[in-house]
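#lab-general

N.A. 3:47 PM
ok so I finally got the sequence cleaned up, no stray characters, all 383 residues accounted for. can someone with queue access submit it? mine expired

B.Y. 3:52 PM
send it over

N.A. 3:53 PM
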Amino acid sequence: MGKIKTIEYFRVLPRWLFVKITDEHANYGWGEATLEGHSQAVEGCLDAMIQRFVGYEADDIEYLWQTAHRHSFYRGGPVLMSALAGIDIALWDLLSRRLHLPLHVLLGGAVRHKIKVYSWIGGDRPRDVEAAAKERYAQGFRAIKMNATEDVDWLDSPKALETSVERCKIVKAVGLDVGLDFHGRLHKPMAKQLAKALEPHQPLFIEEPLLSEHYEGIKQLSGFTTIPIALGERLYSRWDVKRFLNDTSIDIVQPDISHCGGISEIRRIASMAEAYDVALAPHCPLGPIALAACMQVAMCTPNFAIQEMGLTIHYNTEAGTYDIKNYIKDPGVWDVKEGYVEGLKGVGLGIEVDEEEVRHVAKTANVWAPKGFVGPDGSIREW
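B.Y. 4:20 PM
back already:
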């Protein structure tokens, strides 16, 4: 046992926010509180949590989680839950490091020894997908995800969807399964058409076919297509998820461990989903700490299906050279073989953070600004 002595956070390139917690006995753990495009808001929330939680027992993870969530009065949402996630992940890392165990052992032990993964191709306006798919295949991936479309109007020409089907066919011809991320860009008139057009080509899943707030539309769409429906990155707690489980409108839940309150909450979401025969496929186009935390959860979660990896995702390459193999001392842990990454075997999260690099980059890292699309008429479109 030991009381929390310090909580620090570090804004690093390309768009990540890391958290380090140290207790009074010099035990430490790392977490990730990345909320893409909103780092300043999360940093402000972390400032308040630092004032509140320094001096708490570091081992009392659930007590701290409940205090942060229930004593805030205004609960949930992306900012609060991302800040809480960074602290929660760091505390789990600290505890399992102190006990000299891999984190998944504390969560019940392994149910698998390697983790099925996928990565991204294509960018925000998907193009050159054949060459990118071949590159991913050569890297060891057997599944990828790409944006299904560019920006699409509320009601657009059906021709706007034709290239989506062609890209799906091209990638599958390379030998890869493909998940298609609608990204909440499409509205119901277009989403219905695209799902119908894609169905003969059997994508692995369609993600956020509509924005999560359109739960009645997602329910309608789920009865319209046989393609598995996935969503969850913009759901921040089990209370946000339960509507979609109760109305049986999704097949795969995709909470983001850095947005939904951390390891503690994603485990609860996974257990709820299992009771509805819904698979877990955590969203994670983020940094190496969030990915390691997802891998630890995957190791011990029966209904885990596949893990997103942000390896050379366009958001990273657009910002420079920093990627998930930065900030850790053994980037080989992310090597992919025949579609899988070996389960992390080290203590804690299973990675060793390069603190020197983190502190160096954090001195000058700027914030990553949210993106957006504007139509030819000047109107705002979903990104």
